[in-house]
Specification:
Blueprint (H helix, E strand, L loop, with lengths): L1 E9 L3 H13 L5 E4 L29 E2 L12 E2 L21 H9 L7 H9 L2 E3 L13 E3 L7 H12 L15 E4 L4 E2 L2 E2 L2 H5 L9 E4 L2 E9 L2 E9 L2 E13 L2 H11 L2 E2 L1 H6 L6 E2 L5 E3 L3 E8 L6 H4 L2 H14 L11 E5 L10 E6 L2 E4 L5 E4 L1 E8 L6 E4 L10 E3 L6 H18 L10 E4 L7 H11 L1 E2 L29 E3 L14 H19 L1
Parallel strand pairs: 1-2, 1-13, 2-10, 5-6, 13-27, 14-15
Antiparallel strand pairs: 3-4, 7-18, 8-9, 11-12, 12-13, 16-23, 17-22, 17-25, 17-26, 18-19, 19-22, 20-21, 23-24
The structure holds flavin-adenine dinucleotide.
The site of flavin-adenine dinucleotide has 44 residues, from helix 1, strand 11, helix 6 and helix 12.
């Protein structure tokens, strides 16, 4: 089967949905195909916000990747959930909406990427936004991407905010405005109690234009390149071979693990590696799959037996009430994002801007021997460094599109990342010691007060931490020999081929990554439209 479109976009995740929607709506005369390996989002857990906790294990809508043994985490293999469904990771993520810091984007521009400074990208954040607080210099209204505020029903969140202020963190009513620093509620992508993934925002009936063809169950196997130009994509459509030709451009939006895989399977990557797998080399690009990085969470679990938490709300009677409230009015804790309160702060005293983040939730859990989640009467303070310097890689291990890639993130590889992790953890612990938390009568369950020294805390973080799931950087944008795409997101050496997703970030943003991926999709649409006219 063969079909022809002006643009073929591979991957309906955060960036791909925004890009395909913007392209098709800006140019009604063009045809856009949006290919997605996964299915439409039929599982109800994909729509109930708190369902996210049940979507982290491998399943039909999760690629279910795993790292190789991580050398700086006692050789642990770490699970890396990735959405395989319309919406991509935004269909299984924690739904908090954080853009990062202005300096992140200024640094991208300074590293040889003109057009990516904060002043350049801010309009791409705001133009698809529908901000609950209204439009201002930092926010937009009227776009498909609803950004709402937490309706907090847990007094312990207010106390945690007060405690953070007592520990010296100023209250910040909008962490996506002039300054990210301080403590405040997370903005989120939950509309009327339901998850607003990139697919529910940009591909919804009445939003997606008729010239945008969304094609689920379409696994792209390789990009077709002829005389140095990408001409289309070879894929499996409902398990049958198909070719989609692109008159103008192919854009890969497969995410930080899958976009480099697709390049490599298309013969674009490290020449020796490709030859060894029997893949004809189309373009030798040594940076493909390199520079992979992520944020790493450290947890403090604090027991609070008499306070209102998700644990108390999950007992049979309150749970019945919560279910009824959710079903009738889409309210209650089932409609909450993964974390309610954020703190952005300096872990290292000599940092010139926040280098650490806390995700706070009035919930705690553990896992039993079979890996099932066991709720605990407590709260969780998760801290992570924001600008890791550890770098890993991901590469295919076979030409077969069905085989899993090798992934080595090298979490906590550098001294800097280890120091930030430990100091971020200590400052998170300080908040819990403040008077505002006193009347909850709680105590630290994990790691417990015996764990105090730098080495002990680091050992605990290595043994029990988790990824924050913000994988980025594996098709790095830049102007040097190891860059994969240039500042216009064009794959170096191949015309008509771009990458637009978390993989192009030269360095991860200081915060959660969905908002920046939507921005990258928006910007890529503009770059394509400008090139055409
Ligand atoms: C568990 C979890 C929690 C998270 N929590 C948050 C949060 O609360 N806030 C936040 O901002 N960020 C969060 N993130 C991160 C954020 O969601 C991702 O960084 C972001 O969605 C990545 O967007 P993307 O466009 O790069 O790729 P993705 O959203 O991953 O999209 C890639 C898409 O391409 C498809 N695809 C891949 N290969 C192929 C192929 N060969 N053929 C066809 N289709 C293909 C995939 O199936 C997928 O749908 C979380 C991520 C996870 C996994």
């Amino acid at each position: 089967m063969m079909q022809e479109f002006d643009y073929v976009v591979v991957g309906a995740g955060s960036a791909g949905c925004a890009l395909a929607w913007r392209l098709a709506s800006s140019e009604p005369g063009c045809s856009v195909a949006l290919l997605e390996a996964g299915s439409p989002a039929r599982n109800p857990l994909l729509h109930v916000p708190l369902g996210f906790a049940f979507l982290l294990k491998p399943h039909k809508n999760n690629w279910g990747y795993q790292t190789a043994p991580e050398p700086h985490l006692n050789q642990r293999r770490v699970d890396l959930p990735r959405g395989k469904v319309l919406g991509g990771c935004s269909a299984i993520n924690g739904m908090v909406y954080v853009r990062g810091q202005a300096q992140d984007f200024d640094a991208w521009a300074a590293a040889g990427n003109p057009g990516w400074a904060y002043a350049d990208v801010l309009p791409y954040f705001t133009r698809s936004e529908d901000h609950e607080g209204g439009a201002n210099a930092f926010h937009g209204t009227g776009g498909p991407l609803w950004v709402g505020n937490v309706r907090n029903e847990f007094p312990i969140c207010e106390d945690f905010i007060k405690a953070a202020q007592q520990a010296g963190h100023p209250f910040n009513s909008d962490i996506n405005a002039a300054s990210q620093a301080g403590v405040g509620y997370f903005p989120h992508n939950i509309r009327r109690g339901k998850r607003l993934s990139a697919a529910s925002a940009f591909l919804a009936p009445g939003v997606a234009p008729a010239n945008l063809r969304v094609i689920p169950h379409a696994l792209a196997r390789r990009v077709l390149v002829s005389n140095g130009r990408a001409t289309g994509v070879e894929c499996l459509l409902n398990n049958k071979p198909a070719t989609l030709l692109a008159n103008h451009a192919v854009v890969l939006c497969g995410g930080a693990i899958n976009s480099p895989q697709l390049l490599e399977r298309s013969g674009i990557g490290q020449a020796d590696r490709l030859r060894a797998l029997g893949i004809p080399v189309v373009q030798d690009l040594p940076g493909v799959g390199e520079n992979l990085h992520d944020h790493w969470n450290a947890y403090i679990k604090f027991g609070v037996s008499n306070s209102k938490t998700y644990f108390s709300e999950s007992k049979p009677l309150p749970m019945l009430n919560n279910l009824v409230r959710y079903l009738v009015r889409k309210e209650g804790f089932l409609a909450n994002p993964a974390a309610l309160v954020a703190v952005f702060y300096q872990a290292l005293d000599d940092a010139d801007r926040p280098d650490a983040q806390i995700h706070f939730a009035p919930a705690a859990s553990n896992f039993d021997a079979r890996g099932n989640m066991v709720p605990m009467a407590g709260i969780t303070v998760a801290s992570c460094g924001l600008r890791p310097t550890s770098r890993g890689h991901t590469h295919i291990t076979s030409a077969d599109a069905a085989s899993a890639p090798h992934i080595q993130v090298n979490y906590l590889q550098t001294d800097y990342d280890q120091r930030v992790a430990v100091e971020a953890f200590r400052k998170a612990r300080d908040i819990l010691r403040m008077p505002a938390m006193g009347h909850h009568g709680g105590s630290e369950l994990e790691p417990g007060h015996a764990v105090q020294g730098f080495g002990e805390i680091l050992d605990y973080i290595r043994a029990t931490g988790d990824p924050v799931h913000h994988l980025a950087g594996s098709c790095r944008m830049g102007n040097d020999d190891n860059a994969v795409v240039d500042a216009a997101l064009r794959v170096r050496g191949i015309s008509g081929l771009r990458v637009a997703d978390a993989s192009i970030m030269p360095a991860i943003v200081s915060g959660n990554t969905h908002a920046a991926c939507v921005m990258i999709g928006e910007k890529c649409a503009d770059l394509l439209l400008k090139e055409k006219h």
